[in-house]
Amino acid sequence: MASQSQGIQQLLQAEKRAKDKLEEAKKRKNKRLRQAKEEATADIDQYRLKREGDFRRIQTSVMGSQGNLAVKIEEQTVEKIQLYSSSFHKYKEGVLQQLLDLAYNIKPELHTNFQYKL
Q: What residue spans carry the Basic and acidic residues bias annotation?
């Protein structure tokens, strides 16, 4: 009976050692997973910063060009407004006189399709 008790004790100790080894392995695995996750996060952050820097650099070059385009468009708009304004003042009297002549010099005529019925 003592040998059975001793055998049971050995089995319990072996089971405890196996359980301890499993727990230790789980801890190491979790530690490696956390470390891998932290490294991946650091790599992702570094990549994101690099891409954002590239984007800002490209955006600055494009926006600089767009800023120049906006200035050119504004200048062209001012020139066209001045051109239209001078054209308006140049032809205003003549056009106004033509409109008044058409309004005052009415020549009443019957339409060609009009049929007079008595």
A: 14-26
For 41-49, which contacts have Cβ atoms below 8 Å and span 24 or more sequence positions? none
Running DSSP on this structure, what letter comes out for residue 75?
H
Evaluated on CA atoms 9, 11, 17, 23, the torsion sign reads negative
Q: What are phi and psi of 73, to 5 degrees?
A: -65, -40
Residue 19, both tokens: 């359980």
Residue with the larger pLDDT of the pair 107 and 36: 36
Q: Copy the structure tokens of residue 34.
A: 């956390």
Record the tokens describing residue 12, joined without a space: 């319990």
Summary mean pLDDT of the chain: 90
Q: Could you tell me the two tokens for 9?
A: 């004790």
